[in-house]
Specification:
- By secondary structure, the chain is an alpha+beta fold.
- Helices cover 53% and strands 8% of the residues.
- It contains 19 helices and 10 strands.
- The chain has a 4-stranded mixed β-sheet with strand order 1-2-6-3. Strands 4-5 form a two-stranded antiparallel sheet. Strands 7-10 form a two-stranded antiparallel sheet.
- A hairpin with a 3-residue loop joins strand 8 (477-479) and strand 9 (483-485).
- Helix 5 crosses helix 14, helix 8 (160-177) crosses helix 9 (182-202) and helix 14 runs parallel beside helix 18.
- The N and C termini lie far apart (89 Å).
- Mean pLDDT is 90; it is low at 1-24.
- Bound molecules: protoporphyrin IX containing FE (HEM).
């Protein structure tokens, strides 16, 4: 081949590459105007992203493209688009974006794990621990803890935030690691609090500099923008405790009391016993077990706690819904016993309250980001490999094409016609596809038994000031990775002396 011919070929290749690139570029999904080179960096919101993205989506569509310093982002604002991409094309969209500060921190569990062999092993563990069948075996634990919780609300005025946290923590650690004494739960709450502070600190606005410019992690700490990477390095050992501490505590308990009770860990240990002659495999399995149970613990507490604070907010600001739920429980169950899981099918309004809580204010408003692993074309729009795909759950929950008056808290929307509006259940709250929340059955049943128990036994209402006057209640929300109501005061009383007695007798069981 002579050099002219080779040059022609090279030139033609270059031209077709540039044409292809230009064509691809024009075919990105629509999005707001951007700046040269930096893209949407100047307009990308730091706060209330979910709400702002939803406003943008009304103008640019359900599939919206943003670009920041060459990194592509696609926001999905409708359930239909999320199902089309994250579920129907899950082979392309099940990866997670790489987050450098998490790697420096040593966050190596499933939550942000790339899609691949290791992910599949972890997913198998978390999935099998939380199938519908497995969750049915946790119902007694959920019921017992929930009744103790309801009573504790009566005994400790204005401490509902802490008590909801304790309830969410105590249920998940019992299920994962075995039963614990009440005073031990405080240690796990502290562990989670420390964990949340670390994660919040390294994911604050500005943390992204090290994501765009990896060399920032090697610059001295005084250099602007290097803080998150340095903090992540400093906190590596304390962060690791979230995986090691619960496991080691459970080991100590086992050494003292033998392998007792039925927990995710005790079931796993029974399987280990068969493999003692393969110490290497056992070491790997121990590490996987620590990381997978740690992931379930990490992912369960704040999400479930936040959902219950949304429930409280909804009940206080919509007393007519609370009353209708209470009436349903009184009519169906009566006042001589407390609700059980077996009652779920005959309490449709109570169940609708739980669904509406999860739609009205999704506590993980933009789920967790997915990442595409190959170029894709959707409805003529080009989504390049490596795009971070954000399912905007808030946007989906406010979709007026699906939900009438979406900002209203209205459980009846889910009841079949003519009693309700026959609107579809909002299942997007738990994400999509191969990354869908593995704890969804457990989370739903925890919140359901809590809702039924509270409706059966307590009245939640606006708080009172020192003169006994009602403090007007208007829910306000705060957002990080999860979103929940800002702290609020409320008044909690027993519905009747009979309902209080039921709670007391449940405590003595
Ligand atoms: C109401 C409470 C909860 C909500 C709203 C919630 C929501 C979510 C969402 C939106 C995701 C991301 C899904 C996606 O990427 O598409 C997720 C992931 C996850 N959730 Fe939940 N969750 C809740 C409770 C729980 C509980 C109780 C557990 C454990 C028992 C749990 C364990 C996990 C894990 C391990 C992941 C990561 C899955 C993966 O990356 O493959 N979650 N959750």
């Amino acid at each position: 081949m002579d050099s002219t011919y080779a040059g022609l070929l090279l030139g033609a290749g270059l031209v077709s590459f540039l044409v292809l690139k230009a064509r691809k570029k024009t075919n990105y999904p629509p999005g707001p105007p951007s700046d040269p080179l930096i893209g949407h960096l100047r307009v990308l919101p730091f706060d209330n992203q979910d709400v702002i993205f939803h406003t943008w989506a009304k103008k640019y569509g359900d599939v919206m493209h943003l670009e920041v310093l060459g990194n592509h982002l696609v926001v999905l604002d409708s359930r239909e688009a999320a199902i089309d991409l994250l579920e129907k094309r899950s082979a392309i969209y099940s990866d997670r974006p790489f987050v450098r500060v998490f790697e420096i921190l040593g966050m190596s569990d499933i939550v942000m794990m790339p899609y691949g062999e290791s992910f599949r092993n972890h997913r198998k563990f978390v999935h099998s621990s939380m199938t519908k069948g497995a969750v049915a075996t946790y119902q007694t634990t959920q019921t017992v803890h929930t009744r103790l919780f309801a009573l504790s609300l009566l005994e400790n005025k204005n401490q509902h935030e802490m008590l909801i946290n304790r309830w969410a923590t105590s249920i998940i650690i019992s299920v994962l690691y075995g039963q614990h004494a009440v005073e031990e739960v405080g240690e796990y709450m502290k562990l989670m609090e420390d964990h949340n502070v670390v994660v919040l600190n390294i994911t604050q606005p500005g943390a992204s500099l090290v994501e765009f410019f990896p060399f920032f992690q090697y610059l001295p700490a005084w250099f602007p923008g290097t803080g998150p990477a340095h903090r992540a390095r400093q906190w590596k050992d304390p962060f690791r405790r979230i995986y090691d501490y619960p496991y080691e505590q459970a080991e100590k308990n086992m050494a003292l009391n033998g392998l007792r009770g039925d927990s995710v860990l005790s079931r796993t240990w029974c399987k280990f016993a068969d493999r003692q002659d393969h110490p290497e495999a056992a070491a790997e399995e121990i590490e996987l077990t620590k990381l997978a149970t740690g992931a379930l613990f990490r992912a369960a507490v704040e999400t479930t706690w936040s959902t219950v604070t949304v429930l409280f907010t909804a009940m206080i600001s919509n007393p007519e819904c609370q009353k209708r739920g209470q009436e349903e429980i009184s009519r169906v169950i009566g006042s001589e016993r407390l609700p059980e899981f077996e009652d779920m099918d005959v309490l449709p309004y109570t169940t609708a309250i739980v669904h509406e809580v999860m739609r009205w204010h999704p506590v993980v408003p933009m789920a967790l980001p997915h990442r595409s692993v190959q170029d894709d074309l959707y409805k003529g729009m080009f989504i390049p490999e490596g795009t971070t795909v954000i399912p905007n759950l808030t946007g989906m929950s406010l979709d007026e094409r699906v939900y009438k008056n979406p900002t209203l808290f209205n459980p009846s929307r889910f009841l079949p016609k003519p009693d309700g509006d026959g609107e579809p259940i909002f299942d997007a709250t738990f994400g999509f596809g191969r990354r869908i929340c593995p704890g969804r059955h457990f989370a739903f049943s925890s919140v359901w038994i809590l809702t039924a128990t509270i409706l059966a036994t307590l009245n939640l209402s606006e708080g009172k000031d020192e003169h006994g006057d009602t403090i007007p209640f208007s829910p306000e929300f705060k957002s990080a990775i999860t979103s929940r109501p800002k702290e609020f005061v409320c008044d909690i009383t027993a519905r009747s002396s009979a309902s209080e007695s039921l709670l007391w007798s449940a405590r003595s069981v």
